[in-house]
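Recap quiz, item 2
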Amino acid sequence: MNRTYIADITPGARYSISGFVENLRNKRTMAFLVIRDITGKLQVTLEKEKYPALAAMVDQLTIHSVVTVEGEVVANEYVKMGGIEMLPDSMKIESIADALPIKDDSEIDSKLEFRWIDLRREQNQLMLKMQTLLTGSMREFLLNRNFVEIHTPKLIGAASESGSEVFEVKYFDTKAYLAQSPQFYKQMAMASGLDRIFETGPVFRAEKSYTNKHATEFTGFDLEFSYVTSVEEVMHMEEELLAYAFAKVAEKYGEDIKRLFGKEVIVPTVPFPRIKLRDLYAELEARYGYTVDDSAKGDLTTDAEHLCAKFSMEKYGSEFLFVTDYDAKERAFYHMRDEAGVPMGYDLIWRGCEITTGAVREHRYEVLKKQADEKGLADDVTFYLQFFRYGCPPHGGFGLGIDRLTMLFLGLSIKEAEFLFRGPNRLTP
Amino acid sequence: MNRTYIADITPGARYSISGFVENLRNKRTMAFLVIRDITGKLQVTLEKEKYPALAAMVDQLTIHSVVTVEGEVVANEYVKMGGIEMLPDSMKIESIADALPIKDDSEIDSKLEFRWIDLRREQNQLMLKMQTLLTGSMREFLLNRNFVEIHTPKLIGAASESGSEVFEVKYFDTKAYLAQSPQFYKQMAMASGLDRIFETGPVFRAEKSYTNKHATEFTGFDLEFSYVTSVEEVMHMEEELLAYAFAKVAEKYGEDIKRLFGKEVIVPTVPFPRIKLRDLYAELEARYGYTVDDSAKGDLTTDAEHLCAKFSMEKYGSEFLFVTDYDAKERAFYHMRDEAGVPMGYDLIWRGCEITTGAVREHRYEVLKKQADEKGLADDVTFYLQFFRYGCPPHGGFGLGIDRLTMLFLGLSIKEAEFLFRGPNRLTP
């Protein structure tokens, strides 16, 4: 008999289900099993005298063993779980579980060590289903707008864009590095005339960060598009993209997220509010007495970033806030600058956490080379500068971290929001 | 004025287009430009006397410079390119190209060195658009069947599954390796109860291969699903997946692929033919006099693999062929074996090239450990064996290389089929 997903079962017929034994009460005459699959849970109620062979199997079962069970599913108002139960007449043990080494309330490090057991929790299954829909919806949005998907190399020949830490790889008789972002190559795609591209892929960060929002490996969602003339166009693409994907998530998983994580999925209205960095500092001072030294006002401090959550909600009724007009010295050399020397870029803050840096890029070779020189990077980025010598459209783009979005959606730490976290002290399993 | 894609233009109205100067004839009174964007080409015909400012700009232009041009588009039966032309009255130079360092017929290594210029060719743009649709369609197929998308770590703590070569990474105070496939982690996802998963991501192969179908980095498309009991189910999932995606590609790009690559996109009929390895050898000998030593018949030789193209077409009228019943000693330790000790797995051959290995996996801890021991791998895979100790559904799956599929679709080498090829001697740009 073919397997049916538990969520697709209605009482009054025979079914075969497969899943993990989530709960097990093995009494003298009866046994009660709760079986869980990716779609839900079902109580299985066994009359032991009637099916002695099944009773003998149940005696072997442990929590999280895996079984396939067949039988009539009937309504029973006394069953808490949806008022239905299966009365099995056939069973197959697929896998017997040893005693579980972690519990729901174990410490995070134990949970990570046995991540595959931790991922069985309903919350984590929802997390990955939600992330699947989020990523799929973002791709869908872009595919509907003529974006091409690319896969850029993660093994690169030169240390990376910003002089920050990269992982070194033994590459045959030479050295390679792991790309800390697809930035250079998505710009290469613009020089290739691909017009609009996106990529989902791993990025690697060799910084020894031990915060709850940094990982040494995470999944980036990056895009870049040509013939952009203003930062406004880049921000507009991003807010439309997020509003689209958030609506999909809210529609399908909003209630489950509320139930299992206590978090509301709020579909943002477009446009998101925009504010210049120095105006933001003025607002934060006026409203909350938050002050920093003038010399620090060219970048967003971590405290100011957190305060954005409150400020943006109070002033604009929005969870999102675009912050523009950072100082050139705080931004990457490849951001285009306006006539006043201000980078044509932004950070997007959601719930008090930076989720994106976006910008119009400098595509003019001479200007770009000069800006790289200023940052002392010209030698490192020689190969990249070549992309702009043989014709290149003006362009802009941004990047998001899938894991960070997931984390903020559900109120988790980054360790909990990745399929399998990697950090300076965590390389297993 | 907003930009219009060239393919969306119909004569009789004003448009603004942006693109590369593909061709340029600058005569005394007239200039003829061919502008190309991601959707097509348009002739731009300038009356120089009428627009001296534009004529001065055209004097600066070089092949592959990038421009934005505005003007009336009119029908003109003398224009080869679709019988229409733009009569420009406004122009902006976005980027001036230096003299191009490669031509269409340059050697492959020069083309790779200047890959971004090479990617501008119409063939390569089609290649990446086709790959986008292929990958998107495969994801769509799986999303419609309850698959969850995961992103497994590429930095791993132990050398990998098969004892083959892996890249070593300096990871803070220790060593890491680059995953040569997501195999272990997609199986971890099965132990996590995720039921059905897929992943698109880079895989890294440290072998010094210099063939036209191996790369040190390429994009894998992997999937795994639970409660599989026979290899037939795995093969069926794959043939359905490919037939679906091929139909999408044929519909949208079949004609273009024929025109630009001279290749027919044949949408396969399901089921694909299946043959046991030893029966295949018997057929190859009877039909083509191909013989190998008996000791070599537990695996598919490269010559036999190539001959499959001819054989499968002749006998079954199919470009595809599933080959089953390899010898256990030739297959990975994690393939489940039937009662006779034969691995429940297959290779899929398309156009005489292996594109997949698929299998039912061994999910029983004791059996799996024994099979790893036999291959001398038990110490390397200790962390992986733990996945099977605490309950794990039976499962199976397979993996495809996006680049290899692309290569075979279009009749290219792997160097030409990647966005940016990586090989033992190629780490740039």
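The two ends of chain A are 36 Å apart (CA to CA).
The CA atoms of residues 351 and 408 of chain A lie 7 Å apart.
End of item.
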